[in-house]
Amino acid sequence: MHTDRQSLTGWGNTAPSVATLVDVTAEELTRPNALTLLRRAGARTGGGRADGARADDGRNDRGLIVRGLGRSYGDPAQNAGGTVVRIAEGAIELDASTGTVTAGAGVSLDTLLRDIVPRGWFVPVTPGTRFVTVGGCIASDVHGKNHHADGSFGSHVVAMTMLLADGTIHHITPTTEAELWWSTIGGMGLTGIIIDATFRLIPVETGHFLVTTQRVPNLDDLLERMEVADHQYRYSVAWIDLVATGSSLGRSVLSCGNHATLDELRSYLPGAADDPLAFDPPLLPGVPVGMPNVLNRAAVRVFNEFWYRKTPREHHGTETIAGFFHPLDMVGHWNRLYGRHGFLQYQFVVPFEAVDTLRAIISKISAEGHASFLAVLKRFGAESGGMLSFPKPGWTLTLDLPAGIASLGGLLRELDRLVIEAGGRHYLAKDASCSPDVIRAGYPRLEEWLAIRRRFDPDGLLVSDQARRLELI
Amino acid sequence: MQNALQEPQNILVLGGGSDIARAIVEELDAPTLRRVILAARRPGEIETDGLCEHAEVVVVEFDATSHETHEAFVESLAAQYGDLDIVIQAFGQLGADDGDDPVAAARLAEVNYVGAVSSGLAVARRLRAQGHGTLIVLSSVAGLRTRPSNFVYGSTKAAQDAFSTGLGHALHGSGARVLTVRPGFVRSSMTTGLDEAPFAVDPSEVAEATVKGLRKGADIVYAPGILRLVFGILRFVPGQIWRRLDR
Predict the structure, then answer these.
(1) A374 in the same domain as A273
(2) From CA A430, how far away is CA A433, in angstroms rounded?
(3) How high is the pLDDT of residue A60?
(4) Is residue B1 situated within a structural domain?
(5) Among the three residues A204, A222, A252, which one is the final residue of a domain in this structure?
(6) The domain spanning residue A323 has which CATH number?
(7) Are B224 and B141 in contact (CB under 8 A)?
(8) Contact assessment for residue B161 and residue B182, using Cβ atoms and an 8 Å cutoff
């Protein structure tokens, strides 16, 4: 096990804290004394001075949390003064007869897709980046453009291997251990360590999608079109220009798609049909460290104008997996474009009837003049059953805000109030600023989840900065 | 834990009667603030009404000169209330500084400097174990160059300042930080009756500069900011001129 003391943040580069980072393999986690070794490794502190962590009894009482690829925006994958565990990518075993794959918790969707797409399989759910781990997909119960049709990642998992706080290893399914299962799906890593998981895949003929892109002049038009589109298309999402105000409020680009069959690919993109399952997305050079914040309101306004105008009113064509799902993955460390102070990603869901709340929130952000570069709107389908799972039927809006703006706290609390009053809630994988009562109000099964977590982890071994901040422990 | 907007949940004030510290607490007050702990030698005399809208305010007993109790004191507060996001060291006294009484001077040094060292190290130990948190130390420009009218006080602040800035360097990389605030003359209960020096400010102005520096990740804050330049020059004027500047 390799250990290192490091300052960690989420993808938003905010609220740093220092922890002992321990790198392990999935194999090391299956050994009988794995947990003891982890805790002892975490208690080792480099540097000669006494510093409070009691290394002599082999225990670090600040607990531990597993960290994937650090794509959560806030602080769920860091643990101030404690231990943070990273699991190396493990094995991938595809079972074509059942259409399932078993992958180590540390395997990223990027690695997984490079393995399964050429063999004619696709993941049931992918979020906006491939650089998330299987463990992270489960712990955040991630969703994608197909939530209205296929639900979230957790709905497709059929089995998991977990290392629990008492040091025992369990192979669980939703029927053998329902309470542990549904508290782990969306449970932000606070119920135990996931070692590997088995989940269903989608068979595909090509690695391409048939996509219809439309320019939409305002919010009402968008909401109407999205409702219609979700009956025809498996994948749909809208990108909203939050800088536009007045009659153009909510002006957007709606993107809807379905998997392209081999025949469809042949007719639309005959060159690609020679190697329909190729998957090798490019990665451009990343944004360097020390980049100042270039995404101010003026820059965003220019970008949004250009991007909206360049989109034709309606367009049918094909897109690759990377182009359709993961455009931002092309630019490494794109989060550095927000400069030293970092940024927040604010994502919530409100029920379908709360259209007025949605409009009010969009108006408020446009009016306040904060630069929001990326704003995404999606319709959600049914809940997965995870007690702390975020998606539920309704509209979900996601937007980025630079963290250095002085009045941001007041604005976000105002938005929090609107969301909660409308019967909505916030996404823990993005949260970096909510208070405990806002989370409590949005998740009616929180008390139930807390009771189960305490049963499986009575000493509070699993802790994260987010868990402390939101009183999830 | 602080959130992404650097809003703290728990604040500990060592020296709960300090007008400047209370102004800093008010400046940091937000719905996310859960608890403010005011530690003072005479808890009964501490006013809690109207201090902040959102947090629970708790008053506890604290003696800067009981050095052997400081570590346990900080640990017990953390055990009871959770991680300490911000700790403000604000128990410094002016003393009846006539520069003539050895015993009074020694007592002043024990509070302002020795107390700052023992409490500062106790806090640093906790913040380091926590992996996050900031110690805000209320120093003074009076320590940058001592003058005849308050040189004993000035010397204790100079010593405290050397300690806090050095501690900041020692904590680098641990997640814990130190912010040393150097105010000029502040109109407060500590300075009532004294003639105002040039560039005098209110506690709220010191608080504003402090929180701004806190959010920027600064190591040293001057209040008002111009004192950085003023003392940059004053440090080097010849002694004859320096003495004449004193009132």
Answers:
(1) yes
(2) 9
(3) 56
(4) no
(5) A204
(6) 3.40.462
(7) no
(8) yes
Q: Nearest Cα to B184, choosing from B150, B219, B218? A: B150
Is residue B59 situated within a structural domain? yes
State the CATH number of the domain containing residue B196. Answer: 3.40.50.720
- Whether A48 and A168 map to the same domain: the answer is no
The residues of B assigned a catalytic role are: 153
In this prediction, residues A423-428 reach a mean pLDDT of: 98
Q: What does the alpha-carbon distance between residue A274 and residue A271 come to, in Å, rounded to a whole number?
A: 6
Q: How many domains does chain A have?
A: 3
Which of A66, A166, A57, A84 is CA-nearest to residue A458? A166
- Chain B hits for A15, CB-CB cut-off 8 Å, are 1-4, 6
Same domain, A38 and A126: no
Contact A15 B174 (CB under 8 A): no
Chain A residues with CB under 8 Å of B134 CB are none
A81 to B31: CB separation less than 8 angstroms, yes or no? no
Cα–Cα distances in angstroms (integers) from residue B25 to residues A77, A129, A433, B90, in the given order: 29, 40, 19, 12
Residue B84 domain-assigned (yes or no): yes
A468 contact B CB<8A: yes
Q: What is the mean pLDDT of residues A299-311?
A: 79
The range of the structural domain enclosing residue A19 comes to 2-87
Cβ–Cβ pairs < 8 A, chains A and B = 86
Residue of B nearest to A7 (CA): B175
Q: Does a structural domain hold residue A186?
A: yes
- How would residue A308 be classed by pLDDT, with cut points 50, 70 and 90? confident
Q: How far is A158 from chain B (nearest CA, A)?
A: 35
Query: Tokens at residue A263, please?
Result: 């025949």
Q: Same domain, yes or no, for A15 and A99? A: no
Residues A275 and A336 in one domain: yes
CB contact under 8 A, B5 and A18: no
Q: Treating both helix axes as pointing N-terminal to C-terminal, what angle do A355-368 and A219-232 enclose, rounded to 10 degrees?
A: 130
- Residue B5 counted as domain residue: no
Tokens 């049963």, residue located: A455
Q: pLDDT tens digits, residue range A211-252?
A: 999 999 999 999 999 999 999 999 999 999 888 888 988 899
Q: Report if residue A66 sits inside a domain.
A: yes
pLDDT at A58 over 50: no
Query: CA A112 to CA A417: how far, in whole Å?
Result: 40
Residues 6+ apart with CB under 8 A from A158: A100, A173, A174, A198, A199, A200
CB A161 within 8 A of CB A125: no
Structural domain that includes position B174: 10-245
Taking the C-alpha atoms of residue A47 and residue B126, their distance in angstroms, rounded to an integer, is 16
Q: Does A430 touch chain B (CB under 8 A)?
A: no
Residue of chain B nearest A48, judged by CA positions: B170
Same-domain check for residues A81 and A105: no
pLDDT of residue A371: 61
- Give chain B's domain count: 1
Tell how far CA A130 is from the center of its chain. Answer: 10
Instruction: Confirm whether A425 is domain-assigned.
Output: yes
Task: Report yes or no on A380 lying in a domain.
Answer: yes
Residues in chain A within 8 Å Cβ distance of B4:
12, 14-15, 74-75, 342, 344, 403, 432-433
Same domain assignment for residues A422 and A435: yes
